[in-house]
Design goal:
By secondary structure, this protein is α+β, with helices and mostly antiparallel strands. The chain is built from ten helices and eight strands.
Length: 282
């Protein structure tokens, strides 16, 4: 787990440099025009491991095109199915595949398994899997599952205060030529906390550690949407636990943790110029 956390944080630092006071709005991939965008098929099956953009930007700029990937690093593609959209700003100009397919082949590394080259979700997925594998009754190792949650907390708290843009690569004139979708924070939060409660809902220690993780996430960001997403997951963890935990004392402790976490979110929400708080639905 220590190795996974270290590798994942290194990838986060590479993809999402820490930007103090960054603008709230994050850049997202442009939507392809449905009427005239052309799909480029993958010529290989496997996982997208890495994308280098230089050759793609060059061929797109030369032909006045935009290349927008269908899938991100870490996703599986099948040969012959779409890997990217490409289009010209004008519907009167249909893009030619000449040079595009070769540029895709040279710029996109597709392999049999996922790697940590540009794949933050893979690091989170590995920690989640460790937690899940420790929880079945045949193994019954809630301590290891709780450790996995603690380490997930470290990763998710770092992501909580980073600007999580899609990858947009521009030509020398500032025009977006290559766009690669990447997860937003709600995707990372769902990946990190959505599955463990299904396996660990019977174990109070695991449920309480998930509540603490989400409370830590809230304290790591001032963004309303991210705090509201964490609050929603706190309630989901509680609902899963209430269905599975049979001891009233365990439920009472979990309710206390939940109320404290949601109260902390409520108490720290932003204030308006008139002293009233924003309308947050928790």
């Amino acid at each position: 787990m220590s190795m996974i956390v270290r590798e994942t944080l290194e990838v986060i630092d590479d993809l999402y440099p820490d930007q103090t006071g960054y603008p709230e709005s994050e850049e997202r991939c442009p939507d392809p025009p449905p009427a005239w965008a052309v799909t480029l098929p993958s010529d290989r099956s496997g996982y997208i491991q890495e994308v280098t953009h230089e050759a793609l930007v060059e061929v797109a700029a030369r032909n006045d095109l935009v290349i927008r990937f269908v899938k991100s690093v870490g996703h599986h593609v099948v040969a012959g199915t779409p890997i990217a959209y490409v289009w010209h700003p004008s519907a009167d100009h249909m893009p030619s595949e000449l040079g595009l397919q070769e540029a895709i082949r040279d710029s996109v590394q597709v392999g049999f398994a996922r790697t940590m080259l540009q794949d933050v979700p893979f690091g989170i997925r590995r920690l989640v899997d460790i937690g899940n594998r420790a929880l079945p009754s045949a193994i019954n190792d809630p301590y290891t599952a709780t450790q996995a949650v603690h380490h997930l907390s470290e990763v998710l708290c770092v992501l909580a205060h980073r600007r999580l843009d899609d990858r947009l690569y521009r030509d020398d004139h500032g025009t977006v030529r290559v766009a690669i979708p990447f997860p937003d924070f709600s995707d990372y939060l769902q990946l990190g906390t959505g599955q463990i409660p299904r396996f660990g809902a019977k174990e109070p220690a695991v449920a309480r550690s998930l509540i603490q993780l989400l409370k830590n996430v809230c304290s790591s960001t001032t963004r309303k949407d991210r705090r509201m997403a964490a609050a929603r997951h706190i309630r989901l963890v509680l609902e899963e636990a209430k269905r599975e935990i049979t001891q009233p004392a365990d439920i009472e402790n979990l309710l206390t943790d939940t109320n404290e976490a949601l109260s902390a979110i409520e108490a720290s929400r932003p204030q308006t110029a008139h002293g009233s708080t924003h309308d947050w639905t928790l």
